[in-house]
Amino acid sequence: MSATPPATLGPDATIGILGGGQLGRMLALAAARLGLKCHVLCPDPLSSAFDVVRRVTEADYSDHAALDRFAADVDVITYEFENVPAETALFLAARKPVLPDPGVLATTQDRLAEKAFVTGLDIGTAGFVAIAASGDLAAALDVVGRPAVLKTRRFGYDGKGQVTIRDGVDPLAAWNAIGGQPAILEAFVPFEREISVIAARERGGAVACFDVTENEHRDHILKTSRAPAAISPAIADEAERIATRIADAFDYVGVLAVEMFVAKDGAGHALLVNEIAPRVHNSGHWTIDAASVSQFEQHIRAIAGWPLARPIRRGRVTMTNLLGAEIETYRAALDEPGTAVHLYGKAGVREGRKMGHVTRVLPER
Predict the structure, then answer these.
(1) Beta strand pairing call for 76-79 and 14-18
(2) How far is residue 199's CA from residue 239's CA, in Å, rounded to a whole number?
(3) Tens of pLDDT along 230-253?
(4) Degrees to nearest 5, angle at CA 340 with 335 and 343
(5) Global pTM exceeds 0.90
(6) How many Cβ atoms sit within 10 Å of the Cβ of residue 229?
(7) Domain 14-98 maps to which CATH number in 3.90.1300.10, 3.40.50.20, 3.30.499.10, 3.90.940.10?
(8) Per residue in 311-334, pLDDT tens?
(9) Which of 260, 269, 348, 355 could potentially form a cystine with 327 if both were Cys, beta carbons 3.0 to 4.6 Å apart?
(10) In the beta sheet, which residues pair with residue 38?
């Protein structure tokens, strides 16, 4: 359990952020608009969030002395990515409120625990089997069939730590490809589209969802998000209900993203939850420029004990990630009407790295 937060934070309070990437940077920028200060702790000296905050602590997440100093300087603590060690969150939670609760972090860091949590709510997912050793694969493949996706239980994102087992693929080779780690084998879902719901939940339990977003990936990395998603109102309503049920079950405080597959189900469609991200999310970046409140401000409001805003989308929107060397194309977007360019200030360019994004907003039809 986390230390009890004050009813509300004043505009002179300091928010602690674990992690110094672009999400931390955008959280800090949103907090600054509301008069709140931020202190970022991250081991990377080149963290892009360091450029925009009041104070930084460059230290490892296991450095208890640094964590103590960090906790003493802030009023509430949050995180910008889910691979912050759960032990770090628990250590800090004994000193200052950590939101979302560290228990949520522990569940969502483990793909098996996350899937069990979701199915325990009678929400659909792809079929799955736990894999503790290579010898478990043959029987598991008999259960879920081929193709199937073998994923490490922990520390996977943007396609890392996973491999597809198709006909003719040696299961042992797949096991070795993920490093022989505890894993989960998931049935392959022939989905029609991938969608996500960005939901915010405040301490009192009120939930506000942004419009459902449709996502396209390139090599397992999000490339494009569009809102609204090209789905029926009934599917959109069900997606928001699923996200709300998950947030309520966690007694969540802050913003979370629920990624889902839209799959054919007889004459209709079914929604299957793929992943939960207990944080602000790449597919919600469009909200900065195309909604009445951004996902980042909603998160800050929630953890500060402030009321949530009612999100209103301002048009048809497309958000495109600038990956790796694509960052060099940003100048062309500067001249486009209805376009906003966001550059993350990262020092090194490498293939697949998220360097910035471009949001394009068009009038409603």
Answers:
(1) parallel
(2) 11
(3) 999 999 999 999 999 999 999 999
(4) 100
(5) yes
(6) 21
(7) 3.40.50.20
(8) 999 999 999 999 999 999 999 999
(9) 355
(10) 15
